[in-house]
Amino acid sequence: MSNEAQLDELLYRWEELAGHGQRTTPEELCADCPELAAELARRVQALEDMESVFDTSTCHTNTAASASDFDLPGYEILTEIGSGGMGVVYKARQTQLDRIVAIKTMRGGPSATPEEIGRFHTEAESAAKLSHPGIVSIHDVGEVDGRHFFSMDFVDGQTLEQLIRDKSLSAARAARYLQSIAQAVDVAHEQGILHRDLKPSNVLIDSADQPRITDFGLAKRIEGASKHTATGDILGTPSFMPPEQATGDNRQVDRRSDVYALGGLLYAMLTGRPPFRADTSVATVLQVINDEPVPPRRLNMAIDRDLETICLKCLEKNPAGRYATARQVAEECERFLAGRPIHARPISSLARGRRWCLRNPMSATLAAAVIVTLLAGTGISTHFAIQSNRFAIASEHNAATARRKHSEAIATLEQLRKEKLRAEQNEQRAKLAETKAVTQASQLQTQTQLLRTSIHSYLKMYLRTCAIGGEIAASDDVRTANAAFARFASTNQLVTNNKIIQARETIGRHLIAWREQAGRRPKQLSVAVLELTKQCRLAWEYRCDAIVSGGGGRRGGGGQKSSVIRELERQLIVEELYNRATRAARGMAEASNFNAAMRSRYEFDKLFWGEIHFVASTDQESSAVEGAMVRIRECVKVWRQGPPPSELAQCVVDLETACKHGFESTAN
User: How many CB atoms lie within 10 A of CB 247?
Assistant: First the structure.
């Protein structure tokens, strides 16, 4: 048995004898293990001191004074509102500021010991350093006739202990309270102060339903040892103190000790009882040291599992297993209230069992021995039972195997028959599908050829209309233009629509104006011809789309080429038209005289204003060709007045390049 286990047994023995009125010394109890006598004596003394601290049977008999005979300058004592192990709290009015405050005085008055006075001032100093809505503020500290006191906020409400007496709070309310308390504790920790006595009676609930921490009587600085607490002293409330505080190991008391107490507060709010409670303070302390708290959900299945996880993580025996700071507890409560997952994870049953075994090695060893014995006996009896039934099971298994194989053979034959039938059916379907595919391919080929023939015939008709328009635009005299315009009416192989008719009528009006203006060519005639070409283009694309899509077509054209349009234009007309344009351009450059150059320019202008604009894919390409044409015409004008200009050849090269780019764009 380990030394810790022996010490626990000896403490239980000492308490049992003390309960029956039998006084014995640690040396007598440690007769068989004298090396433990000194440590046992220390723990017995600490427990006796703690019994005296927690004994409240005479709490009110030694009150320094009642409210009626207690006079404090500057304050009007109204009534006594509570008392504890260290002092009495009064409700009073601060006369100078006319406000209600609470005044705490030391129990014992002038007879208080220096240690009691030091702890009283420690409480006042600790609370005075803290400024937080969740901590009761200190206003004044003083001494009157040897009686020490300090004044603080008066909280009009009740303690958390009174609120949860014999009942529990809702999950949301408990989490909200704990979040506020943890935030206040974190502020104290950041100021280097440990509370060391967080419990429901030290939490006040104000009229706004907000918790506020009070009673810093056991507080100490985080860094450095307290001058009022010696190693081995057990201070605090047994039901809510952590194991390291319960064993008197004050060197191990740190922020995580207050985190443990936060878990005790949450446990009490959820279940209506503290995590540990026994008939005596010593028995409660021993529970804190040795036992695991009963999971809250075992006491009330309605408790939320996440809150139980937060609570039990705070109540870990090992400080390393708790939340590192009170801020982390507040953040976990915030996640719970917001409906987000918490970071802590529940402790598994296997981990709980392992911890119990580590704390109770003797009991665990005995339990393991019993289990092993039971398993061995069960194994032996099971072995003989299995041996006796083995042959019967084997014979039955063989018979079942034979029946199964017979059934599998019949099923295999039936499966083969079905697969053969399916294969024959699939072969027949494949032949039918092949025949249908051949027929459809032939029909598709015929339809494609008819489609191409139809599209080609429409293309020729629209090109004829554009060619007439180009001839009108290229004419230098109104007679030639009118002769070309007359072919609109004389040629019956033209396709038209309302917009094409409107464009033709516009051209006709310009020709009339040309004739009436004594031979002056209207500037808008070429624009009207381009509009005719554009409408022919849109009508041609709409017609192609209608044929390809089965009669639907596009609404109003749209100008986007389908793959059929691009292919037919590339094969049938684009290259031939641009070749004709470049030949005419070379003819102008290579002409021996001005009249020959004008004839070549006339042929080119007919192509440009009509068919070339019809097949040009973008306005940018048409503009490039038109720009080259304008420069060539300017050169011809210069030629009319003198010798052939030298830059004519370069203009023709530019025109050839523009035509080539236009063809490549259309082909791609």
Answer: 19
Q: Which residues contact 481 (CB under 8 A, 6 or more apart)?
A: 471, 472, 475, 511, 514, 525
Report which of 547, 507, 548 is spatially closest to residue 531, judged by C-alpha positions: 507
**CATH match of 75-153 with 3.30.200.20:** yes
Strand partners, 87: 106
Looking up tokens 């293990």, which residue turns up?
33
Rounded to whole angstroms, the Cα distance separating 103 from 93 reads 9
CB contact at 8 A, 580 and 612: no
Q: Which fold has domain 158-359?
A: Transferase(Phosphotransferase); domain 1 (1.10.510)
User: Kind and range of the H or E element at 106?
Assistant: strand 99-106
User: What tokens does 238 get?
Assistant: 């047994």
For the full predicted model, state whether its pTM sits above 0.70. Answer: no
In the block, tokens 């320094």 appear at 64
For residue 213, report the phi and psi dihedrals to the nearest 5 degrees. -85, 140
Q: Which of 338, 618, 647, 605 is nearest to 475 (CA)?
A: 605
Kindly list the domain boundaries of the chain, sorted by start residue.
3-54, 75-153, 158-359, 561-668
Mean pLDDT of 442-462: 82
Contacts of 510 (CB under 8 A, 6+ apart): 522, 524, 525, 528
Per-residue confidence (pLDDT) for residue 230, from 0 to 100: 40
Closest CA to 78 of 64, 94, 63, 62: 94
- 597, 518 Cβ separation under 8 angstroms: no
Does residue 310 sit in helix, strand or coil? helix
3-class secondary structure, 194? strand
Q: What is the pLDDT of residues 91-129, one digit of tens each?
A: 999 999 999 999 998 876 676 778 778 878 877 787 788
Contact assessment for residue 541 and residue 559, using Cβ atoms and an 8 Å cutoff: yes
- Per the CB < 8 A criterion, the answer to whether 656 and 582 are in contact is yes
**CATH class label, 561-668:** mainly alpha
